[in-house]
């Protein structure tokens, strides 16, 4: 399997992920509001996964601050992971899919803790502390 096949597969996985993610209304809203140049965005995210899976050095950005600017609810994490799980299972090799999912779960968890550091009385994650009154 050539490096080019591998990179093409990762790119196709990213495009498929956005196709599936776009079926969720909240993800569609967040993606639509923030992403203006789709091919450019696909390239950036494919480079991220190329680096995450194969250490290619293609991505040198910082995803965390990018996500801090976005407005979405905890539901978005579930929808994101569901679409991602389907995309990697359909398109990547089983080993790549397993590695990518491990990384994605870890990052989703860091985003969740960073973005929703509080928990309300009913257990809902929240960006702000519960009211005391
Ligand atoms: C609720 C979950 C998520 C939502 C709604 C979301 C949404 C977005 C959006 C809208 C952008 C484009 C931001 C912009 O260009 O202004 C973006 C960028 C990106 N996302 Fe996510 N994302 C989520 C989770 C994740 C996770 C779990 C990962 C990785 C495991 C990830 C990886 C990336 C990367 C690498 C970029 C490009 C960052 C850059 O420009 O350097 N995202 N995301």
Automatic annotation (TrEMBL):
Listed CDD domains: TrHb3_P
- InterPro entries recorded for this chain? Globin-like_sf (IPR009050), Globin/Proto (IPR012292), Hemoglobin_trunc (IPR001486)
Q: Which SUPFAM superfamilies match?
A: Globin-like (SSF46458)
Asked if the record carries the keyword Ligase, the reply is no
Keywords annotated in UniProt = Heme, Iron, Metal-binding, Transport
What is the name of this protein? Group III truncated hemoglobin
| Organism the protein comes from | Magnetospirillum sulfuroxidans
């Amino acid at each position: 399997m050539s490096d080019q096949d591998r990179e093409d597969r990762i790119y196709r996985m990213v495009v498929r992920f956005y196709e599936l993610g776009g079926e969720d209304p909240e993800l569609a809203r967040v993606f639509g509001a923030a992403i203006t140049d789709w091919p450019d965005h696909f390239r950036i995210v494919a480079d991220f996964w190329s680096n995450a899976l194969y250490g290619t050095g293609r991505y040198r950005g910082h995803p965390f601050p990018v996500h801090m600017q976005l407005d979405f609810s905890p539901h978005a994490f579930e929808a994101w992971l569901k679409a991602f799980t389907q995309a990697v299972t359909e398109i990547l090799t089983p080993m790549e899919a397993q590695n990518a999912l491990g990384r994605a779960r870890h990052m989703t968890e860091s985003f969740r803790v960073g973005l929703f550091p509080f928990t309300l009385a009913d257990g809902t994650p929240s960006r702000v502390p519960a009211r005391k009154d």
